[in-house]
Task: structure prediction
Amino acid sequence: MMREIETRCLHLEETEGRSDHYGAISYPIYQTATYAHPGVGKSTGYDYSRLQNPTREHLEQTVASLENGMDALALSTGMAAITLMMELFEPGDHLIVDSDLYGGSIRLFQHISAKNGISFSRVDCYKEDVETYVNEKTKAVFIETPTNPMMHVTDIAALAKITKKHRLLLIVDNTFLSPYFQNPLELGADLVVHSGSKYLGGHNDTLAGFLVTDREDLSERLRFLIKTTGAGLAPFDCFLLLRGIKTLGIRMEKAQENAIRIAEWLSGQDAVTRVIYPGLAEHPGHEIMKKQARGFGAMLTFQLKNKEFALAILEKVRMIKFAESLGGVETLITYPVTQTHADVPQEIRERNGITDNTLRLSVGIEHSKDLLGELEQVFHAIETGL
Result:
């Protein structure tokens, strides 16, 4: 019987009962570039750390277990993971991608992948008929759900029916929910992407990326590509990810609890024109999230009555940090137009609803009383001109 995900964050069954590592509870950091062989044609199982390293292998097995996949690859960043993923495709191939994506993904597709002869159709996958965009050169569909930053929710299982019908890869960036709340492979996805810098690491102290699959053919191809391109995650960073994952469950639960309270509070503020959080019953994707995920996460986006109010919030927050990134224990507030989506053309931002009065909040694990207290103080100071 498979153990619960909270337990799998701490214990990898495949390594239990082994007598190596001198009984270390924390998996050791194998800080070595190369490995000695006992003889010609004989190996310890490792040759060179660009190919594999024991610490990285343990981390990859852990993430594969959390996503219910057969293999996971740990890379230097989330963008390194998506860049490696794009090496699955060739000049002339066509991909359908969600219109609302992390700005770094949009930048990669527009400036690197397009240069390499790959074409894209940008689609609102949460509401449009994706099948109408499929042509004879289409090879994959790439989505985030919820999307960054407008929190659109796509029905993964429904989309998987279309991709399987046309023999396309379905690739899901699962960074916002983490494997604790959502497992796209179980819903029909072929490949899952994570920025491990976010919830998996959880402490805003290291960068990492993951690709996870339950298909042996994809695993073999990706293993060849990571060996060839060389972006595997370093041993010390693997150790930090393993340490962070141990508390993934309790961090996600606490952050989500805080996010729900903040979303409800923001919904009652006159200066806020819109709160976009799937945990609110009025969110269009609320019921889909209840069906395909075990939670709503801790990311939310809200829009203010004007740009000046949004900028004033960024100037006045103190405990809440005005910073890029997400998924750490600290609450961070982000201004997409100058940070995460600064390189996205203005027409795309506007089409997606990202404006000068849009703020994104990554809710952390502080006490909700303190988070709400700071927000109340900031809003009051702006409204009264203090």
